[in-house]
Structures are given as structure tokens and as C-alpha cells.
Design brief:
Order of helices and strands: EEHEEE
Low-confidence stretches: none
Number of strands: 5
Number of domains: 1
Largest sheet: 3 strands, antiparallel
Strand content: over 45%
Helix content: under 10%
Strand order of the largest sheet: 3-4-5
Structural class: mainly beta
Number of helices: 1
Mean pLDDT: 83
Radius of gyration: 13 Å
Length: 69
Amino acid sequence: MVTIFENGRFIENKHITIDASGYVVKENNLIFKATKFKIFGMSLNPYPKATNRIADEDYTLEIVFQPKN
């Protein structure tokens, strides 16, 4: 889940799906859509391992900003 803020004001919580294969599906990876741009979640790091629990705050989400034409 990604929490979206604009100028410090809460906008929404958004569930996205990051496929382990790296395959991007626009409907799954779209985080935010505005009139002039879109933001997509592309990858989540580090990749989880079954033996170690990774704290939520240690994850980073790679995002892509796509301006509309």
C-alpha cells in the first residue's frame, strides 16, 4: 500500500501490485493519475527472503513519473 500526500495533505491510500518478474501492468502499478502526469510503482527493494523478516521502513519503492503528452 502506498500513502499519497500533496503539500503535506493526505490524498489517499493506494494498493499496487509489484510483479516479481518485473513485468509492469499499468492497471496494477499506477499509483497516482493527475491531469498532467501519472506516477507508477516499478520495483520494491530489497527483495524479501523467506528466512529474514524485513522491517517495513527498510523497503524502498522505485517510482516513474510520466508526463502526459
